[in-house]
Specification:
alpha/beta, 31% helix, 10 strands, 7-stranded parallel beta sheet
Length: 245
């Protein structure tokens, strides 16, 4: 694991996007294709914009998976992660394949469908963030560090749901769904490379807990410290409570 701190989130996103692009280009050159995981949320704006601007990526050789989606939320809803990815990325490039989570269908069946697909596509690089409650994807504390299922049904705790409301994705806390389909922690950790971007002061306590406390399912993203090729990019605000870095 390596940690870099940037003056602002714009610089962070540019560097993260360039790093991801280089990994994708190398995977295509070596294997003829690349498999990636894209995340959503405000932490991903910069990295996705930079990734699309990067030259010499043949997106027709790239297969994409995404991390999580609210159960029962229609794709037309402003908070839909499928909508987010389609509008900001998928509709602007031509992927070999893009596998989105359809949480409007049977959740258990969807977990099985995606689990079978992702096991056929070893992930070259996963783009992730850290939630205000320390979650990784929608694996809220106490996260399941043991399940081998690639996708699981999870309950969303109030801090997680409150973050989504405060970020403006929903009109009220009550409107935020209480369950989601999420990629599991073990599946994320199987990625060859992980790029984690974390902006904003409101994430500072979670960053401190995940990077300076013991590795624990109470701080789900702390598990990233065990990955041999994980780049964690923080802006100044997100890193302000760190004392050992």
């Amino acid at each position: 694991m390596t940690i870099e701190i940037f003056e602002n989130s714009a610089e962070m996103g540019i560097t993260a996007g360039k790093t991801a692009a280089e990994i994708i280009r190398e995977a295509i050159e070596k294997n003829g294709s690349a498999n990636v995981i894209l995340a959503t949320g405000t932490s991903q704006f910069g990295i996705l914009n930079q990734l699309m601007a990067e030259p010499a990526i043949d997106w027709s050789k790239v297969t994409m998976f995404h991390l999580d989606e609210y159960i029962g939320l229609p794709i037309s809803h402003p908070a839909s992660f499928r909508k987010y990815l389609k509008e900001r990325f998928i509709d602007k490039v031509t992927f070999k394949a893009s596998y989105l989570i359809n949480a409007e269908t049977d959740p258990e069946g969807e977990c099985a469908r995606l689990g079978e697909l992702i096991q056929k596509h070893p992930i070259d690089v996963a783009l992730v963030g850290i939630g205000e409650n320390g979650h990784l994807a929608f694996n809220d504390p106490p996260a399941d560090f043991d399940t081998e299922q690639p996708y699981i049904i999870v309950n969303l705790d109030e801090p997680c749901r409150r973050q989504q409301w405060n970020e403006g994705w929903f009109e009220s806390l009550e409107a935020v769904p209480t369950q989601a389909i999420s990629m599991s922690v073990r599946q994320i950790m199987k990625s060859k490379h992980i790029i984690c971007t974390v902006p904003d002061e409101r994430k500072a306590q979670a960053v401190k807990n995940c990077l300076e406390s013991e590795i624990s399912n109470l701080f789900p993203a702390s598990i990233l410290r065990e990955h041999e090729s994980c780049n964690i990019y923080l802006d100044n605000e997100a890193s302000k409570l760190l004392t050992s870095i």
